[in-house]
Amino acid sequence: MRGNRVGIGLALTSFVTLALTAACTVGPSQRPSLVIEGAQPSTTTSATAAPGKEALPPLEKPSNASIDWSDCTGQTRARLGTPAPPGSLTFQCARVVGPLDPTQPDGGIARLALLKVGTGPTPLVVVNDLTGLPGSLYAARLAAQLPASFLKTYSLIGLDRRGTGGSDGVHCVPQVDRDEIVGYDPARTNLNDLLSASLDASQQCVLALDNRASSLDTVHTVADLDLLRQELGLTRLNAIGHGEGSRVLTVYADKYPAQVGRFVLDGSPDPSLSSTDSAQAGAAAAEATFNAFATQCVNAGNCPLGNDPRTALTQLIAQLRTQSLTTSDGYQLTPGSALQAVLTGLASQASWPGLATAIAQARTGDGTGLEALVSPISDSSQYDPARLDADLVSGCNDEQGRPAPGQVSSLVTAWGAKQPLFGALYAQGLLWCAPWPVPEQPLPAPNAPGTPPILVLSTANDPVTPAAGSQRTAADLANGVLVSWQGSGHGALGQSSCATTAATKFLINGQVPQNFTSCPA
């Protein structure tokens, strides 16, 4: 239950390859720099640092790596579905086994699924949101967005975090509870049914997971990362954190500063906010992202939603409130699940045309487009469990300041008035963790003194991890460097050519951008 509780469908499920042809040059340090178009970065690995910053460590080739990889290209392509990755990409998979709890060696094991893509000699670990694609699939998608030189320098190592994908995927929430939680009408201020479903989901997961229930969280994932570093034969870990996955890396950097190599945090949650404040910020960010989506749709011409996409979506939700829409395979699209689907589509700007079409089709009785966006949250596939389950367990373990049910009810009304599309939905999401029995374990505030520079990317209209949170993370880190993209979507890597180039130069060349660099939309 991360701060932005309802953004669980916001996975980048529809990456479209972007041409990474813009580089970044920066202006005076007294104010945010504006980048301009430039040449591609070179592929040298010389490390330079901004004034007052430690240089990035040199790239490292593994020594005594102990992971056995095997080809899994066919299975990975089946898991990825549409759009298919480029035919030139091949994938290898492996599994690492570690202790369920490092402080209790005899307390069981954790099996971690990995995917490798690229031929570069240096491993680069990829950690994704719990709410999005499993890390293995996110790494596979990301590989298609990066320049060829990147995959000759690095091999991307996608990690399925505990309870997700192939890492002992959690499947503990009864389907009836998933349907109730995901589909709950945000207009309802009586939350008894939602609380009942959340309570039953919590009880069933604690019973099913037993001692695993308290081991699915950020702290244990940090231990998994350091185990993975050792198994890869590295003295320092190079990594990309996407969204809430960035928080895993900040906690890692705090605990293991001497093992930090080159870190990129792409859309980090605000470390200073309570769960309630974070959810409110998420609702406002989602509303702003929808406004950007609507403006782009209208300005592009022939928008399927007409000249007022907000009204079109509002009318669809009203239709579904009167009568839910049943798709050809029996899925029931409700006001809650339709809004979750829209949030998913907002995550990637490249998917916005498809999102507009899906909303328009639902208004005429065809809900298949929105179903495709929301179904990974509540439905299991052949290879991957429903994302709600791991997100509920791990998210609730991490969530700080769980509000009482009575508080949530008043927030539904107040936030719904401020953010008419998503405010009530985000407020209701705070109830999911209210019955969770595992005690709260506060996470350390990011500071990580003694590390090399850590690159933080923010996105102006990020519906999952709002820009202010990424900016706060960069400011709180002792050696944080911020690059801000004035665009829309969840994360800048792969969506902004400028931000992607800055990250590429940072990771490959060791070139640290000037702090407060700004990339145009």
- What average pLDDT do the residues reach? 89
Helix content: 25-40%
- Using only C-alpha atoms, the radius of gyration works out to 22 Å
Look at the helices and sheets and give the structural class. Answer: alpha/beta
Give the beta-strand count.
Answer: 13
Q: H/E element string?
A: EEHEEEHHEHHHEHEHHEEHHHHHHEHEHE
For the biggest sheet, the summary is:
11 strands, mixed
What would you call the shape? Answer: globular
Distance between the termini: 30 Å
Low-confidence stretches: 8-52
Strand order of the largest sheet: 1-13-12-11-8-7-5-6-4-3-2
Strand content: 5-15%
Determine the number of helices (DSSP H or I, runs of at least 4 residues). 17
Note down, in words, how this protein is organized.
- This protein has 17 helices and 13 strands.
- It has 521 residues and is α/β, with parallel strands linked by helices.
- Strands 1-13-12-11-8-7-5-6-4-3-2 form an 11-stranded mixed β-sheet, with helices on both faces. The protein has a two-stranded antiparallel sheet with strand order 9-10.
- About 9% of the residues have low confidence.
Can you tag this structure with a few keywords?
single chain; 521 residues; alpha/beta; eleven-stranded mixed β-sheet; 39% helix; globular
List the helices and strands and how they pair.
Blueprint: E1 33-34, E2 70-71, H1 73-80, E3 92-99, E4 109-117, E5 122-127, H2 135-143, H3 150-153, E6 154-159, H4 175-183, H5 192-209, H6 218-231, E7 237-242, H7 245-255, E8 260-266, H8 275-300, H9 309-322, E9 325-326, E10 332-333, H10 335-346, H11 352-363, H12 368-378, H13 387-398, H14 405-418, H15 423-429, E11 454-461, H16 467-476, E12 480-488, H17 497-509, E13 517-519
Parallel strand pairs: 1-13, 5-6, 5-7, 7-8, 8-11, 11-12, 12-13
Antiparallel strand pairs: 2-3, 3-4, 4-6, 9-10
